[in-house]
């Protein structure tokens, strides 16, 4: 597994590895056996990937003499709630999980968030391994220990920091992911390049044909590098107390506002973030932080990956602007805008004039 090691995350709950590769379930099962020697493992899977991913993983774990209990759930964002947690708690009770049991979450970010939260709360905390199967969950949701569920008053209001034992990303899983979901994941992966890695952005631009057609080794390598960036940031700023993790919010101020106005579901998260990154880029340009060429480079890369760069029809600019004030990240009424001074060089500003924000939104129409 050494060649698959992408990163080691440092956390107050222990350091742990992230493995990224293509088709290595057998090696993963052996690794789990050798490192944790569990008698039983409890797998909780999104039903959409049960046949393609979970069954294979169960077979490999059982070949390594680990008895598996599995639960396949028909899950989506509207079911990321306490009712589904209770359903999983019931199941864990019925199959006899114990305090030192290991759960494995298999699915997209909804599943890793939900199962991570179950692992943080059931019996005051079990062990969890994440096996993300969507690109968004690989490059973003599964990394960093934030887990949670939605509440009637808003998204992710109930949650906990729960660091897993390990995260395993098998890019073969992505073969069955819908193109629109894949592109939405690219938004977060490319965001990491805009923020921290000029070289990675060049790869996204120059090798887009191979990346989009999932051709290895470049496909797996590019995901691995993007994962490393998020892993480095969360290792430096586990609880988002410093100025590192907040930078990952590039494109999210407008992105979240847009998601709120279009009602969740119409735009995928990565699509809303893509439009948000265009607005943040326009703001950066209008404040003379970046050149017109850099701005065009950012926008054309998003376009290359099938991401939207224009504001959704029917959205009122004033509503979009006003709604940014509802963002969780707003402190004392001031928005912390994550902007760019250059590719690979983010800056946080809390004094962007309203008129510049409005103009920058207007430019995306
Ligand atoms: N904890 C964090 O730090 C963090 C960060 C970002 C996002 N999130 C959360 O992640 C969630 C979004 O993640 P997501 O975009 O992965 O959503 P998701 O889990 O709903 O997955 C997207 C869709 O793809 C399907 N799917 C997943 N893997 C598949 C595969 N291999 N083949 C075919 N279909 C597959 C799912 O069933 C679903 O329909 C949100 O709930 C968000 O709040 C959490
Ligand atoms: Zn995001």
Characterise this structure.
This protein folds into 2 domains: 2-175, 3-Layer(aba) Sandwich (Rossmann fold); 179-362, Dehydroquinate synthase-like, alpha domain, CATH 1.20.1090.10. 46% of the residues lie in helices and 18% in strands. The protein has helices at residues 25-36, 50-63, 82-94, 109-121, 135-141, 179-196, 198-206, 208-212, 218-236, 252-261, 269-286, 292-304, 317-323, 354-362, and strands at 5-9, 16-21, 40-46, 67-73, 102-107, 127-132, 146-151, 154-161, 166-170, 337-342, 345-349. It has a 7-stranded mixed sheet, sandwiched between helices. It has a two-stranded antiparallel ribbon with strand order 7-8. Strands 10-11 form a two-stranded antiparallel sheet. The longest helix is centred in the middle third of the chain and has 19 residues, at 218-236. The protein is globular and about 60 Å long. The protein binds nicotinamide-adenine-dinucleotide (NAD) and zinc ion.
What are the salient characteristics of this protein?
14 helices; two-stranded antiparallel sheet; 365 residues; binds zinc ion; alpha/beta; binds nicotinamide-adenine-dinucleotide; Dehydroquinate synthase-like, alpha domain; 2 domains; seven-stranded mixed sheet
Per CATH, what is the topology of the largest domain? Dehydroquinate synthase-like, alpha domain
Bound molecules: nicotinamide-adenine-dinucleotide, zinc ion
Structural class: alpha/beta
Helix and strand sequence: EEHEHEHEHEHEEEHHHHHHHHEEH
The mean pLDDT is 95
Spatial gap, N to C terminus: 48 Å
Unreliable stretches covering 5 or more consecutive residues: none
Q: How is the main sheet built?
A: 7 strands, mixed
What Rg is obtained from the alpha carbons, in whole angstroms? 20 Å
What shape does the CA trace take? globular
Question: What is the spatial order of strands in the main beta sheet?
Answer: 1-2-9-6-5-3-4
- According to CATH, the homologous superfamily of the largest domain is Dehydroquinate synthase-like - alpha domain
DSSP, total strands = 11
- Assembly type: single chain
Count, helices: 14
User: How helix-rich are the residues, as a percent range?
Assistant: 40-55%
Share in β-strands? 15-25%
Quickly give the CATH architecture of the largest domain. Answer: Up-down Bundle
Q: How many separate domains make up the residues?
A: 2
CATH class of the largest domain: Mainly Alpha
